[in-house]
Amino acid sequence: MNQSILFGDELRWDEQQRCVIFTAQSMGALLECIVPAVLLEELAGKPVIEQNEGFSVFNQFRFDLEETAEQLIEDEEYDSQGRVVVNTLN
Question: What tens digit of pLDDT does each residue of 5-23 get?
């Protein structure tokens, strides 16, 4: 794991976008990382309806999700709002 990219422990659930949001710090910049519920549902093999379910699935796959986000950050793969969107696992 790249020590220049640090991931925070705090998670947020965005009800409108149906995603888990976590943060990463890279070269002093704070980045939002997004994991859509669609991916969480794929990983869990069941619907993710609410925040607690989203957080539970995220935490089960945290290492892999952070590893994928790290690769996206290193490759500078950001969306139009400067966020990292994890749509699949590496």
Answer: 999 999 999 999 999 999 9
Q: How many CB atoms lie within 10 A of CB 69?
A: 24
Rounded CA separation 21/33 (Å): 6
7: how many CB neighbours lie within 10 A of its CB? 19
12 vs 37: CA distance, rounded Å: 12
Domains of the chain: 5-85 (3.30.160.140)
Q: What letters, b where the CB count within 10 A reaches 16 and e where it falls short, cover 70-88?
A: bebbeeeeeeeeeebbbee
Distance separating alpha carbons of residues 37 and 14, to the nearest angstrom:
10
Closest CA to 90 of 48, 80, 73: 73
Asked whether the whole model's pTM tops 0.85, one would answer yes
